[in-house]
Design brief:
The protein has about 425 residues and is α+β, with helices and mostly antiparallel strands. It contains 12 helices and 22 strands.
């Protein structure tokens, strides 16, 4: 009897987390990654405690994660005049059993990649190979793989599409899907060597829902007290003409810095922070409409291929890691079968689709919307604008929807029990 074999299209954070999960539970897999060489690209992202829990269960430690980022201590929203709207501790400081981490996206991917090569062997990842489509068969699936050598047809038991925003597998599974959705927000992203603000490891959202900055460190401080500060500048414009330009292009500061002139207080100088970046990249803030299913028989979607969402909730990468673990749990119970994929779909597709729409409505940054509507974002006492009880309730609802409500997460059993193996 042929040993079951799972193909993974895409070697990003989700694809690598899935490969490590499959190895942990005893399922054979191969990852196909389109780029010829993986490099630590990107800037900062946040990993919520629900994702860190899964990384710990995969054998990663705080010491390992400290090499690619640092634990977040605080999450804060600040109004247009520099006064606090809401702040709360995060991770261990908030009482979670696991920390929240702010990390360099590319360094995290490389950490996972190195672990895949070490644990599964060098043949587990084929770079320069893109999965462009699939055929379902009576006993599995055939993946079409494009490489410099031409197109191969590779038979396997299951195929998982972790191939991101422009997923070829999703496009085949849902050929009538609407185009990528752009709501009008433009993001300018960069990193600057600077001294951290507030707690020294604070995630700070500043401004309004249509005009804001997000700032947080993604490295521990050096001997001089400086860290790598990740920042995102955002401005919402009229989107009726659609997005024009590259999806990820380097731009000069004078393209956007005028939107943030005057944003300076005794604790933060936003224009100086922006000017300290060596390079800045421009992105549209986009997502896709939710789809009714992530599964087509022996084929499944995960990560951005399944649920690309606005980054307002800082949970895109976290959800990709959770996807991998929930899929692994379904395989333990149902074997390497389409039945297991269907169980995975039934567990995640509907609630994560709801999260996509919640993030489109500003996610946890909805508090900025609320304050802006009530006072234009300028106030002396936030309690006169939005009560503490209202703020706390708002945040609690978002955490529950995103899967990291503290009591529920702390009490939950492991997604994959120690030593569990695929049927």
């Amino acid at each position: 009897m042929t040993e079951p074999h799972i193909l993974i299209a895409g070697g990003g954070i989700g694809g690598m987390a899935l490969a490590l999960t499959l190895h942990q539970i005893g399922a054979r897999c191969t990852v196909f990654e389109a780029v010829p060489e993986l490099k630590p690209l990107g800037v900062g992202i946040n990993l919520q405690p629900n994702a860190i829990r899964e990384l710990y269960d995969l054998g990663f430690t705080a010491e390992m994660l400290d090499k690619v980022g640092l634990p977040a201590l605080e999450w804060a929203l600040v109004g247009r005049n520099g006064n606090d709207i809401h702040s709360e501790p995060r991770g261990l400081e908030a009482g979670y059993n696991w920390p929240q981490y702010a990390v360099h996206r590319g360094e995290l991917q490389m950490m996972l990649y190195r672990a895949v090569l070490e644990r599964l062997g060098p043949d587990a990842v084929r770079t320069g190979a893109r999965v462009t489509g699939y055929e379902k068969t009576t006993d599995g699936v055939i993946a079409h793989v494009q490489s410099a050598q031409g197109t191969e047809k590779i038979a396997a038991t299951l195929l998982v599409g972790a191939d991101g925003l422009h997923s070829a597998i999703r496009a085949q599974m849902h050929p009538a899907q609407p185009p990528i959705q752009w709501g009008g927000a433009i993001l300018w992203r960069g990193v600057t060597r600077a001294k951290p603000i507030r707690t020294g490891s604070s995630f700070v959202g500043l401004g309004t829902h249509r005009h804001r900055m997000v700032i947080y460190p993604i490295s521990h401080t050096d001997a001089e007290g400086y860290a790598t500060i990740n920042w995102i500048a955002e401005q919402t414009v009229d989107n009726t003409g659609g997005w024009e330009g590259d999806w990820n292009r380097k731009v000069p500061l004078d393209r956007f810095i005028h939107h943030f002139e005057g944003w300076a207080w005794d604790w933060l100088d936003v224009p100086a922070l922006i000017r300290g970046a060596s390079e800045v990249y421009e992105y549209p803030m986009i997502d896709r409409e939710p789809i009714p299913t992530w599964v087509d028989g022996p084929v499944a979607l995960m990560g951005d291929a399944a649920h690309v969402m606005y980054p307002t909730g800082s949970n895109g990468a976290s959800q990709a890691i959770v996807d991998a673990r929930v899929l692994g749990a379904a395989l333990i119970k149902g074997g390497v079968t389409p039945t297991a994929l269907a169980a995975y779909d039934a567990t995640l597709c509907k609630p994560v689709s709801e999260l996509i729409l919640r993030n489109r409505g500003a996610g946890p940054f909805g508090l900025l919307n609320m304050v802006d509507e009530r006072c234009g974002g300028i106030f002396e006492r936030i309690d006169d604008v939005v009560s503490k009880a209202e703020r706390t309730e708002f945040m609690a609802k978002y955490k529950a929807a995103a899967g990291f409500a503290i009591e529920r997460l702390n009490a939950a059993p492991p997604t994959i029990p120690a030593g569990a193996r695929v049927a």
